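Inverse folding, one chain.
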């Protein structure tokens, strides 16, 4: 219900939703006669909250000064996620892989092939693209 694009999959759906399918609505009404109609689209912080939900909770990105922590909470059927993260003038291509959750499986981070002691990415603005591999235990 909260993904606005899903309300534009057919003419009938658009006629019910009645608001822009490219703006996050603060409300989707659940009471007749307006069931399914969106509301408060341009007057809301909902888009910001949705962004935070995806970036911080689902992808698990957390910036602390010059380190990026990646602690995703991926659905069980997602095996990989790719994130292109720009830090000032430098791009980090981050591939998050969910690996089988066995007893010896540990989360790990490598940057340009170098294993990191912490489960974080040290951010440098060296204007060079970096390849990051994050391995996390798959959800069971």
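Residues assigned per position:
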């Amino acid at each position: 219900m909260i993904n606005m694009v899903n309300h534009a999959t057919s003419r009938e759906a658009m006629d019910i939703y009645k608001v822009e399918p490219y703006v996050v609505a603060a409300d989707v009404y659940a009471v007749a006669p307006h069931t399914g109609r969106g509301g408060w689209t341009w007057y809301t912080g909902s888009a910001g909250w949705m962004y935070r939900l995806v970036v911080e909770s689902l992808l698990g990105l957390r910036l602390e000064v010059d380190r990026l922590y990646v602690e995703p909470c991926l659905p069980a059927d997602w095996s990989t996620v790719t994130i292109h993260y720009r830090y000032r003038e430098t791009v980090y291509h981050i591939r998050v892989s969910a690996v089988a959750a066995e007893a010896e499986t540990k989360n790990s981070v490598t940057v340009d092939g170098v294993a990191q002691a912490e489960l974080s990415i040290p951010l440098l603005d060296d204007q060079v693209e970096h390849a990051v591999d994050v391995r996390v235990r798959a959800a069971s």
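The mean pLDDT is 90. Residues 7 and 13 are 5 Å apart (CA to CA).
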